Amino acid sequence: MVVDLHILDVILIAWMDSIIGSVGRLGKVKVRNDDDLIDRMNHLYTTGILIIFTVVVSARQYVGDPIRCWCPAQFTSAHVEYTNNVCWISNTYYVDMQDQIPVAHNKRKEKELGYYQWVPVVLLLQALLFYLPCIIWRLLNGQSGINVDRIVSVASDAQYESPENRTRNIKYVVRHMDRCLDNQRETRHSCCVRLRHILSANLSLLCGRRYGNYLVAVYFLVKIFYIANVIGQLFLLDSFLGSGYRIYGWQVLEDLVEGNDWTASRRFPRVTLCDFEIRQLPNLNRYTVQCVLPINLFNEKIYIFLWFWLVFVSMLSCYSFATWIFHMIFPTTRIQYVRKFLKIMDRIGSTPDKKLANRFTVEYLRHDGVFTLRLIGKNSSDIVVAEIVSGLWDMYRSKKSIQIRSNGHDTEGEDV
């Protein structure tokens, strides 16, 4: 039996080492560039933190001694081991040292702690929930016809390349975006189709690939998922841990300000009580023992950190969502954003150029094109965005010139 336990310990340690190695290699994995920093705080950094916490708690539970109970003197070592195991798998309960232990067992039941065995499972579930919106985003954005990750990756790498490679990368991004934007065009021409496109471009009332705002609509939906997830997890932990966890951080801050012992928490007690029965024919003997939960030292620090981290991430996620809404919903902000880069590159100056720049933004780039440019800016630099906008602008003007010559008249000559 001793040999079997030793083999089990070796297997568990090897398993933990493999997990830690996987987490350690997480930093070497190439990060995709199809979202912004706040999104990565949700699906990458928070998920990594939760996995590390899972490894720490699991190592303590399955390799160390998560509980030790003070047993009666007549207990043998086998009795002590049995007591530790039965008190771990059954829920212990907490009664303050200054209070009397309730006589009624239903009163003791009300004070039970039923979370500590399930902490690793819940942490892994939280990690999955944080990564789920990212999976949805990557599944859906591929249906847009715009390879966002490829475009942003090449544009981001361009800022570190030599001048020749930089120029080649910028030209590649410009051609790729132009083909993607053309692929989204509506091939039908009718009054209803034009009306729907006007409503989509100016009021954002309709969504779809052909309206040029599919990516933006999906991205906003995923942003809402991120916000709902991070706020919902505070309530999930409140239900899991009990005792008003959603205000736990404020109570810790209040204790720190008032100079109280903030570690003396009833949520994560170190010393608990355990009731169990031993059947010794023909009698059923009841025992109440006092147990130490060293694992709660880790749980307390983990969940204090998680409270502040979740609040921090939820605030940033809400701010990011509001910022994206402001930048993408209103046509004026999109036009000003594109005009800024055209002015930097000395591409517009006269009034006809400014009018054409409006059409370039609303009709050519549309929502998804401007959205892709903003993602490039968030993952690289404004200089790269300016060069890409300049290349798209030159391509757009050349197309307009070819269209005018093919029509054989100069009705739009004042805009070119």
Automatic annotation (TrEMBL):
Swiss-Prot/TrEMBL keywords: Cell membrane, Ion channel, Ion transport, Membrane, Transmembrane, Transmembrane helix, Transport
- Keyword Cytoplasm attributed: no
Pfam families according to UniProt = Innexin (PF00876)
Explain the purpose of this protein: Structural component of the gap junctions.
Q: Enumerate the transmembrane spans.
A: 6-23, 44-63, 115-140, 214-236, 302-330
Q: How does it sit in the membrane?
A: Multi-pass membrane protein
Q: Which GO terms describe its cellular component?
A: gap junction; plasma membrane
Q: Give me the gene this protein comes from.
A: LOC115232440
The record's family statement is: Belongs to the pannexin family.
Which PROSITE patterns does UniProt cross-reference here? PANNEXIN (PS51013)
Q: What is this protein called?
A: Innexin
Entry's localization field? Cell membrane
Give the signal peptide range.
none
Q: Which GO terms describe its biological process?
A: monoatomic ion transmembrane transport
Key word Transport present: yes
